[in-house]
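Dear colleague,

Thank you for sharing your sequence with our group. We've completed the structure prediction you requested, and as agreed, I am returning the results in plain text so they can be pasted directly into your records. Please verify that the sequence below matches your submission; if there's any discrepancy, let me know and we will rerun it promptly.
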Amino acid sequence: MSKFDLKTFNPEAFGAYVNLIPKTRRNELIRSRAIRPTSQFRTTLAAQTAGNVASFPIFGRIGGAAQNYDGETDIVASGTTTFERSVIVVGRANSWVERDFSEDITGGAGFMSNVARQVGEYWQGVDQDTLLQILVGIFSMTGTENERFIERHTMDISSDANPNVGLATLNKAMQRAAGDNKQIFGLAIMHSEVATNLENERLFKNLTQTDANGVTRDLGMATWNGRLVLIDDGMPAIDLGGGSLAFETYVLGDGAFDYDNVGAEVPYEMVREAKTNGGQTSLVSRQRKVFAPNGISFTKNNMASKSPTTSELKDGDNWELVNDANGEYIDHKAIPIARIISRG
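Please find the predicted structure tokens below.
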């Protein structure tokens, strides 16, 4: 145990409490079904010498044309392709210092819950920002196959005669991205401006639940063309000039991102500086996490250190479609990530 401004501080208990305490800030993307928890990354990284990048094989499907079986023609075997997917650990840290932590931060309302609530919400916001930075990077990729993915998985109606989403927008966007595989998409996350437009057009279907007594209640959730709708003003808005904005709506499938908290050696600790400013204490927090988009690989082409910066996550050169290094790429229709750009 260590003391933090005369409060007992247990780093392990504090970390567990941060994960349990309810969050109040809307960070719908990081909390959605699009994020699939896994433990495979930390297991693989722990077994490796290098601790920030891991590569995983993805087995290709069998194929080849069926051959004539006539008792005379030799049967020619065809092999399968193995793709490789690389993931990167994103490390982030921050520290907060107070000369009188109890008064300035907890407000006398309880040390553990107040600090945990603030730190937990802070990191949840950081994680959502990380996901959005990755999405920017994905939609900035270059190269023939990568650009084909971007073109097919983007529906930009912001310059159309009717630049707002409508009755058929989502269905068309999903078909454009995945063709007859459009059922892979399960949710759409959008800015409230876009959601309000859809509500005004009565294109949302509100979800309800009927209890054992036959009473039906509104769940406060809605679907659009059968896909769950999440509303969050943290979604990107593009400044078109002259006061006009275009909004990015992301359409994602369940498990569009694999997620693993691989952990830091010391995620939380207190540092006491007795002489500085007459005495002050800092809360230091660190985290290392993997957010790996399915079907897309991190290349490290433009990464200067062991953890990618914000600009490096947004750099399209650091991302590419999963491939076998011999010119064969994963079918873009299998990737449950798409976007709609609209004025509302």
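Summary note from our side: The first helix runs from residue 11 to 20.

Kind regards,
the structure core
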